[in-house]
């Protein structure tokens, strides 16, 4: 029997608990997963709960209700009002999920949205976000963020930094590693035997021969030539404004953008509700809904579980494509 997916509940005062319930209502036994969290934070959200003593019980339990691997938190969860007392619980649940997937008790880890300020205020959380904490737990130096939906996979080479700092941060080593990690993941986790990559330039019109910037000539272009010579199929550097229409997307399996908004604007335009955040380069599969805690609508019953459902489905498909031990590291 296939191993279930572990879902860390995330910030319990956000929409994580209610979209977990809605995901179970939509998926039921078709895609077994279990929530790691405090059952008290999930009661009364419209689904029966089934407490687990082991992840191995999840597949059977999901016929009867939302499977929950209990993890006690310090305080109740009030929608829209994060309690600093629960910050350590949020962090510990993530670590527990990583441990379970690394030990092979879960096929993948899907993470509910967290609120970084609440974690910092309540528990001194020292990481910029989920991704960096997962890399720390896994002992991995460099990971890659991919945003994916059925119509597009896109990777930002630089992520959460000011636009003014992007040119300095965009080094040959960073670009080379990002492309290699992306290409490996497309082969192993997405079942694409010969990935086609498209790489955007940094500047308008990809620098227009140096008239609008030289990063394409001095950094991006040489790395792409090196990797093409090594056998990769890569186009670019291309003008980003021509890369994301339907005709262009038909010619690549993933696009690499040079900074955050260059990557996220197209995918959120194409599929705002259904985009999935995937972390590449970890020794296990991790997906996440592409949205935050949404404190403003938590508890109102209006939260949309589309992205979480897509994240669980993608984790399932990636685990099937990988078909190997979760302890196997990226090559």
TrEMBL record:
Main location: cytoplasm
Transmembrane segments: none
Binding-site positions, a divalent metal cation: 160, 205, 260
Annotated EC: 1.1.1.262
Root EC class: oxidoreductase
Cofactor: Zn(2+); Mg(2+); Co(2+)
One Gene Ontology molecular-function label: 4-hydroxythreonine-4-phosphate dehydrogenase activity
Cofactor note: Binds 1 divalent metal cation per subunit. Can use ions such as Zn(2+), Mg(2+) or Co(2+).
Residues binding substrate, per UniProt: 130-131, 268, 277, 286
One Pfam family matching this protein: PdxA
Pathway this chain belongs to: Cofactor biosynthesis; pyridoxine 5'-phosphate biosynthesis; pyridoxine 5'-phosphate from D-erythrose 4-phosphate: step 4/5
Reaction(s) this enzyme catalyzes, per UniProt: 4-(phosphooxy)-L-threonine + NAD(+) = 3-amino-2-oxopropyl phosphate + CO2 + NADH
Subcellular location: Cytoplasm
GO biological process: pyridoxal phosphate biosynthetic process; pyridoxine biosynthetic process
Keyword terms, alphabetized: Cobalt, Cytoplasm, Magnesium, Metal-binding, NAD, NADP, Oxidoreductase, Pyridoxine biosynthesis, Zinc
Coiled-coil ranges (or none): none
InterPro entries xrefs: PdxA (IPR037510), PdxA_fam (IPR005255)
Record has Transmembrane as a keyword: no
Gene Ontology terms: cellular component: cytoplasm
Family designation: Belongs to the PdxA family.
Classification via HAMAP family: PdxA (MF_00536)
Role, per record: Catalyzes the NAD(P)-dependent oxidation of 4-(phosphooxy)-L-threonine (HTP) into 2-amino-3-oxo-4-(phosphooxy)butyric acid which spontaneously decarboxylates to form 3-amino-2-oxopropyl phosphate (AHAP).
Other known facts: The active site is located at the dimer interface.
Subunit structure, as described in the record: Homodimer.
Protein name, as recorded: 4-hydroxythreonine-4-phosphate dehydrogenase
Organism: Gymnodinialimonas phycosphaerae
């Amino acid at each position: 029997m296939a191993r279930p997916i572990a879902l860390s509940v995330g910030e319990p005062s956000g929409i994580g608990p209610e979209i977990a319930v809605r995901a179970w209502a939509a998926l039921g036994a078709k895609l077994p997963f279990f929530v790691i969290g405090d059952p008290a934070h999930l009661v009364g959200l419209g689904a029966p709960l089934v407490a687990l003593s082991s992840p191995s019980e999840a597949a059977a339990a999901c016929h009867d209700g939302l499977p929950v691997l209990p993890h006690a938190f310090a305080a109740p969860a009030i929608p829209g009002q994060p309690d600093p007392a629960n910050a350590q619980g949020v962090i510990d649940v993530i670590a527990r999920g990583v441990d379970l997937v690394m030990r092979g008790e879960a096929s993948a880890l899907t993470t509910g949205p967290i609120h970084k300020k609440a974690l910092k205020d309540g528990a001194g959380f020292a990481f910029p976000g989920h991704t960096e904490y997962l890399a720390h737990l896994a002992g991995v130096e460099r990971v890659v963020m991919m945003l994916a939906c059925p119509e597009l996979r896109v990777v930002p080479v630089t992520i959460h930094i000011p636009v003014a700092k992007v040119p300095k941060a965009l080094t040959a080593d960073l670009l080379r590693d990002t492309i290699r990690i992306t290409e490996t993941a497309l082969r192993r986790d997405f079942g694409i035997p010969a990935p086609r990559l498209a790489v955007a330039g940094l500047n308008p019109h990809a620098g227009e021969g140096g008239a609008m910037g030289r990063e394409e000539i001095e950094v991006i272009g040489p790395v792409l030539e090196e990797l093409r010579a090594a056998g990769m199929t890569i186009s670019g550097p291309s003008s980003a404004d021509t890369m994301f229409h339907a005709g262009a997307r038909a010619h690549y399996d993933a696009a690499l953008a040079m900074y955050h908004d260059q990557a996220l604007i197209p995918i959120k335009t194409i599929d705002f509700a259904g985009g999935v955040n995937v972390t590449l380069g970890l020794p296990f599969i991790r997906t996440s809904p592409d949205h935050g805690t949404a404190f403003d609508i938590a508890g109102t019953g209006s939260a949309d579980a589309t992205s979480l459902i897509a994240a669980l489905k993608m984790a399932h498909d990636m685990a099937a494509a990988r078909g190997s031990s979760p302890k196997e590291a990226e090559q």
